[in-house]
Design goal:
It is a single chain. The chain contains twelve helices and twelve strands. By secondary structure, the chain is α/β, with parallel strands linked by helices. It has two domains: about 200 residues, Isopropylmalate Dehydrogenase (3-Layer(aba) Sandwich); about 140 residues, Isopropylmalate Dehydrogenase, CATH 3.40.718.10. Helix 1 crosses helix 2, helix 3 packs across helix 5 and helix 7 crosses helix 8.
Length: about 350
């Protein structure tokens, strides 16, 4: 579906939501939002209306669908109704059962929503979880939402940050095997990561002088070079260079003692060196209510902090807290960016 737009109506933010893997809990979460929509925003689901209605029936919560048109300014859908930009699945969907035939549909929803953000139809994008395995099994190269969004927007480098439990944790590297992490942490990439993080904290989160704690890569932050030299050769030189430009980055600090309340009171965000260094702490503090934010994009994108949960799809047991937080944060960021 091509999205065109005459321009924002100036009254409220319009948020695009992609349901993700149609056999997962994404449609369940959309149904939940239909009956308790976010205040102060217009929510548009970019997906298949038949999947949403079928899931609503399965959950005992039938939903109505209103075809969304970019050129028509409408009030937010009333409770029990979803505004939907139609992107059809290739084959019927069964909750909990993956089908490679619908993998391309998942990517089409993301592309459609991004194009809508770029054209001004949508003020922000919120994404429900996708299943990387089934997309790759379909022969479609896909590393993750973050990497796809960077490619679609022509952004050379983006930063993944999770927000929740009173924490903001950004990542220097994302979906890499551990063996590839050290080589990926270069002076140039780490410099740009910290610049993006600092800029987003200022521009999107409204923090005038962000304070960033930077973790070391190795145990004990390298123990003075005895447990690795990345801290000495790369991380500390980057921090020193950026501090000279006015970026308040501190470290490198041992990751096993960085996440204590006293240190965290001194910062606005933490930069972890790899995925499982920082995210277990944040998810322990906020699981079910954490939000994934992609920094550095020309559009606003937030997402849930969990997966497709195929075993919960269509059962009524899926929790919608993370998606609600993702929508609320997307609205706040859209207001802050356009203030």
């Amino acid at each position: 579906m091509a999205v065109s737009c005459a321009g924002p109506d100036g009254r409220m933010r319009t948020i695009a939501l992609t349901p993700g893997e149609p056999a997962g809990i994404g449609p369940d979460l959309c149904v939940a939002l239909a009956f308790a929509p976010p205040p102060g925003a217009r929510l548009v689901i970019v997906g298949d209306p038949e999947v949403l209605q079928a899931r609503g029936r399965a959950l005992g919560r039938p939903v109505a669908v209103r075809a969304w048109q970019a050129s028509e300014a409408t009030d937010p859908a009333p409770p029990g109704t979803l505004d939907v930009a139609f992107v059809r699945t290739a084959v019927p969907v069964e909750a909990g059962r993956l089908d490679v035939a619908n993998a391309r549909h998942v990517l089409e929803t993301i592309t459609t929503a991004v194009r809508g953000c770029q054209s001004g139809c949508f003020d922000a994008l919120v994404t429900a979880p996708v299943h990387k395995g089934v997309i790759n099994d379909a022969g479609l190269p896909f590393t993750g939402h973050t990497e796809m969004l960077a490619e679609l927007t022509g952004t050379p480098q983006v930063v993944m940050m999770l927000v929740g439990g009173g924490l903001r944790v950004a990542l220097a590297t994302t979906h890499l095997p551990m063996s590839a992490v050290p080589a990926a942490i270069t002076f140039a990439s780490l410099t740009r990561t910290l610049q993006i993080l600092d800029g987003a904290l200022r521009g999107d989160f409204g923090i005038a002088r962000p304070r960033i704690l930077v973790a070391g890569l190795n145990p004990h932050a390298g123990e003075g070079g005895h447990l690795g030299r990345e801290e000495i050769d790369v991380i500390k030189p980057v921090i020193d260079a950026l501090r000279a430009t006015g970026i308040d980055a501190r470290g490198p600090l041992p990751a096993d003692t960085l996440f204590n309340p006293e240190r965290l009171r001194e910062c606005d965000a933490v930069l972890a060196m790899f995925h499982d260094q920082g995210l277990p702490v944040l998810k322990y503090a906020s699981f079910g209510a954490g939000v994934n934010v992609t920094l550095g994009l020309p559009i606003i994108r937030t997402s849930v902090d969990h997966g497709t949960a195929l075993d919960l799809a269509g059962t009524g047991r899926a929790q919608d807290g993370s998606l609600r937080e993702a929508v609320a944060l997307a609205i706040d960021l859209a207001r802050q960016r356009n203030a």
